[in-house]
Amino acid sequence: MEGLVAYGFFFLTLVGIYGLLALGLNVQWGYAGMLNIGVAAFFAVGAYTSAILTTAPSASHLGGFEMPVWIGLLAAMFMSGLLAIFVGLITLNLRSDYLAIASIGIAEIVRLVLTNEGWLTGGVRGLAAVPQPTSGRAPDWLAALVPAPDQFLYMLLVLLLLMIVYWANERAWRAPWGRALRGLRDNEAAARAMGKNALAFRLQAFTFGSMVMGLAGGAYAHFVGFISPEAFHPLYATFLVWAMLIVGGSGNNRGALVGAFVIWIIWSGSEFIITRLPEDFIARGAAVRVLLIGIVLQVVLLWRPRGLLPEQPPRPIENDRSISSPGRTRPR
Predict the structure, then answer these.
(1) Considering its fold, how many domains does the chain have in total?
(2) What pLDDT was estimated at residue 326?
(3) Residue 82, Cβ density class (10 Å: 0-12 exposed, 13-18 middle, ≥19 buried)
(4) How far is the CA of 167 from the CAs of 20, 100, 172, in angstroms?
(5) Range from 52-56, 67-71, 226-230, 319-323 carrying the lowest mean pLDDT
(6) Looking at the domain assignment, is residue 236 inside a domain?
(7) Of 109-123, 147-161, 235-249, 318-332, which range is least confident?
(8) Residue 190 in domain
């Protein structure tokens, strides 16, 4: 029973991390219609940035700064946002299909840098001993109540970060900024005619979404304690995130979280089954897991093309001066 509870903490922590990725992608695609197929790049940059800043001195990679974890997470967001600004200034004027191709190229460049620059990232050997902020911090009374108390505390930390990002996304969705993004997404010519700077709004959305992905990367690094380039393979760090957003419903933050939960249940549940097959079938089973996610995508797209929780019209924010209240006239 204790092992099952500990696995529940592990499962919910990973759902929270993937939920952050889905929320970041939802800002880019669901709000602004930007087709980013390079999610893995920003996820990896965030993970390595936080890990390098918080690990102990090592001869195998850059590091030894031993900074607090919260500084590492902030730096992860900053570096992912900086990369997004650099990429966005070059690519955001491209059409969606060309932006997708460009983002794939950026993700591949980041992967090659992580693999080949051993002095910086440890190369293929990876980067170990990434500290977890809750390790050894659980009080005695908590250890008496729940198994794996350190893991339980880290799960709560990740879920708290998820709640903060969800709240920020919801605020942005209902604010004038979110309305401008949806206007550019649905009818760019009309939005430009109303004086909206398409590049500026897209760059802001692309940067904000990428910073959330960087935060997810930092949270992942401190959770698993070891990262390597293989952990940020496009299958795990891009394909699954897109599947979560499509299944849950793009443009709906609750849908993004529901999609993260549903897809991760299918992904981890299929792994549980496949590892119990005979050895000859385990290698083939990995391909079956991807096929299973593809089937789920096809079923959802045929049954509910807009996802399990489709995009809904936003409710206005209270005291939003850009919207006239009933019985009140807007000052001229």
Answers:
(1) 1
(2) 46
(3) middle
(4) 12, 28, 9
(5) 319-323
(6) no
(7) 318-332
(8) yes
**Is residue 249 within 8 Å of 255, Cβ to Cβ?**
yes
d(CA 22, CA 34): 14
- In the block, which residue shows the tokens 């409710």? 315
Q: pLDDT tens, 178-215?
A: 999 999 999 988 998 989 999 999 999 999 999 999 99
In a domain, 255, yes or no: no
Q: Which one-letter amino acid corresponds to residue 57?
A: P
Structural domain for 13, as ranges:
2-230
Percent of the chain exceeding pLDDT 90 equals 69
Neighbours of 228 (CB within 10 A): 16
Query: How many other CB atoms are found less than 10 A from the CB of residue 136?
Result: 7
How is residue 229 annotated by DSSP?
G
The answer to whether residue 77 is domain-embedded is yes
Q: How far apart are CA 315 and CA 308, in angstroms?
A: 20
- Identity of residue 65: F
As a whole number of angstroms, the distance between CA 280 and CA 55 comes to: 39
Residue type (1 letter), 158: V
**What contacts 163, CB < 8 A, 6 or more positions away?**
none
- Closest listed residue to residue 219, CA positions, set 211, 207, 208, 209: 211
pTM given for the model? 0.92
CA angle 119, 124, 127 (to 5 degrees): 65
Return the closest-CA partner of residue 77 out of 109, 107, 42, 113: 42
